[in-house]
Specification:
Strand order of the largest sheet: 1-2-4-3
CATH class: Alpha Beta
Largest sheet: 4 strands, mixed
Mean pLDDT: 78
Distance between the termini: 35 Å
Structural class: alpha+beta
Order of helices and strands: HHEHEHEE
CATH superfamily: Vaccinia Virus protein VP39
Number of strands: 4
Low-confidence stretches: 1-11
CATH topology: Rossmann fold
Helix content: 25-40%
């Protein structure tokens, strides 16, 4: 599935106030594609790295955590900003994700007051991830 949208509207929908180091600079288009995590041919076909990656409700079962994180790592570069909408779905997947994620990414939780009020829910959080390994 492909869809084109104005990227700044996506950023505005997520945050009401910018978080330090994530202020948008948009030009071009947004591309949305179906992706099977850990699938090398799909990953290479996407021609990464991307400026922004948005992932929501993706940590729900333990055996997808490592393929998901390796896919995020493959699709991101030193300037990629990853928005992760997160809600605990499985305690085992939650524990594994938060044990492995900080090995690959810097993680910053977005305070609820910075989220758009139409999309901020007490049981869900938004995190901003930036790839590690770059100076």
């Amino acid at each position: 599935m492909n869809m084109v949208a104005k990227a700044s509207s996506v950023y505005d929908m997520i945050l009401t106030r910018p978080i330090a180091g994530t202020a948008p600079s948009f030009s071009g288009k947004v591309k949305i594609s179906q992706l099977y995590w850990g699938n090398p041919s799909q990953i290479s076909a996407l021609k990464s790295p991307f400026d922004y990656i948005i992932a929501t409700d993706v940590v729900y079962i333990e055996n997808i955590v490592e393929p998901f994180l390796s896919t995020l790592n493959a699709l991101s570069g030193p300037s990629t900003i990853i928005f992760l909408g997160y809600q605990i779905r499985s305690p085992e997947a939650h524990e594994l994700f938060w044990r492995l994620c900080p090995e690959l990414f810097y993680v910053k939780k977005v305070p609820h007051e910075n989220l758009h009020p139409d999309y901020a829910f007490e049981e869900a959080d938004v995190f901003i991830l930036k790839k590690k390994g770059y100076s």
